[in-house]
Amino acid sequence: MTATVASDLLEETAPAKINLTLRVLGKRADGYHELESLVTFTSLGDRLTLRPGPALDLAVSGPTAAQAGPLGDNLVLKAARLLAERVPGLALGAFDLVKRLPAGGGLGGGSSDAAAALRLLARLNGLPLDDPRLAEAALKTGADVPVCLAGRPRIMRGVGERLAPPVALPPLFALLVGPGFPLATRDVFTALGLAPGDRRGEATADDAVPADPDGFWEYLAESRNDLEPPAIGLAPAVGDLLATLRRQRGCRLARMSGSGSTCFALFDEPRAAADAALTLGSRHPGWWVQATALAR
Which reaction is recorded as catalysed by this protein (predicted)? Predict the structure, then answer.
C-alpha cells in the first residue's frame, strides 16, 4: 500500500479487508454494536490516484464501478472533506478511483478507498499517518476506515475506533467469492436481534492471537463470525456458498467476511487457492472469484 508518484500524480492501492474473526460483544445504549475482529488485508483491491489541483473532484471507473452508488455519497469525497475541516489550507485535487472490489460484500471496499484517500492527502500535505486529525477524519468517515488507514493485520474493537497493535500472521492464501448479491449491514445486525444494553461476551487480550502457526490455526478454528447465522437467515445462499468452499481441496477454513455476502476460504499454499478459484470461476460465471495472498 505504498504510494507512488508519476509526475504530479500520486497513487495508492485500496486493498480488500478480510474479517478473519468477528465477535459481536453487545449493543450499546446509543444503538451501536460493540465488536471485536481480527482484520487483515489482501494483495488485491481498488486503485486510487490523486492529481493535485485547486478543487476536490472524483471520477469512478472499473469493473465494479456501477455498484459504487451515487458519486456524492462516495466515501473518498467524505473522507477528504472531513480532513479538510480539520486541517486548515489542506491541499486537495482530483481523485480517480478504479473499482475492482464488489460493493456491499463485506470486503470494506468503500472504507479502504476512503483510507487510501486519506493516505494520499497526508502524503500531498506532508502529514504523518499518526496525525490525530487523520484518525478523527477516518472514524467520522466510517467504522472500518481507521483499521484500513494503516492496512496492517490487527484486532479492532468497539465500533472500529480501538485498534490493538499489529500482529504477525503466518503465510495465508485465500479464495474470495462474492455470490453476486449484496447484504445490507443494517439488515444483518437487525437480524442478530440484540437490544440496547445486551451483552454477548467480553473482549480478549491484545496478545490473544498466537504467534506460532499451529496455535494460530487453532485460534481461528475456535473463533467465528457472529454475523454468519443472521446473514444465512436472510440469504440461505450464503450457507450454500460456505459449504461449497469447505469442499475445496486444501481448504483449512471457510467463513463469511464482515456482514457478507463475500465469503473466503483459507489455504496453506497459493496453488491450492488458485486451483479452487479456477474451478469455481468456471462453474459459476456469475460469481466474483479471486485468489489472493493475505497481509502478514
Answer: 4-CDP-2-C-methyl-D-erythritol + ATP = 4-CDP-2-C-methyl-D-erythritol 2-phosphate + ADP + H(+)
pLDDT tens digits for 170-214?
A: 999 999 999 988 889 999 999 999 999 999 989 998 888 998 999
Residues found in the chain: 296
Q: Element (H or E) spanning 18, and its range? A: strand 9-19
Distance of alpha carbon 293 from alpha carbon 18, whole angstroms: 11
The domains of the chain are located at 4-163, 173-293
- The DSSP secondary-structure symbol of 184 reads -
CA 14 to chain centre: 9
pLDDT interval class at 7 (50, 70, 90): low
Distance from C-alpha of 227 to C-alpha of 235, rounded to nearest angstrom: 12
Looking at residue 60, its amino acid is: V
Q: Please indicate, yes or no, whether the overall pTM of this predicted structure exceeds 0.90.
A: yes
Measured distance between the N- and C-terminal CA atoms of the chain, rounded to whole angstroms: 13
- Residue 106 is assigned to a ligand binding site: yes
CB–CB of 254/268 below 8 Å? Answer: no
Fold of 4-163: Ribosomal Protein S5; domain 2 (3.30.230)
CATH number assigned to the domain with residue range 173-293, chosen from the 4 options 3.30.70.890, 1.10.3720.10, 3.40.50.700, 3.20.20.10: 3.30.70.890
Active site residues per annotation: 17, 144
CA distances from residue 162 to 36, 53, 155, 273 in whole angstroms, order as listed = 9, 34, 9, 32
pLDDT in tens, 106-148: 899 999 999 999 999 999 999 999 999 999 999 999 999 999 9
Please tell me the distance from the alpha carbon of residue 191 to that of residue 146, in angstroms, as a whole number.
26
Q: Is 107 annotated as a binding residue?
A: yes
Please check the confidence at residue 103 and state whether its pLDDT lies above 90: no
b/e sequence 121-135, b meaning 16+ C-beta within 10 Å: bbbbeebeeebebbb
Cell of 181: 448479491
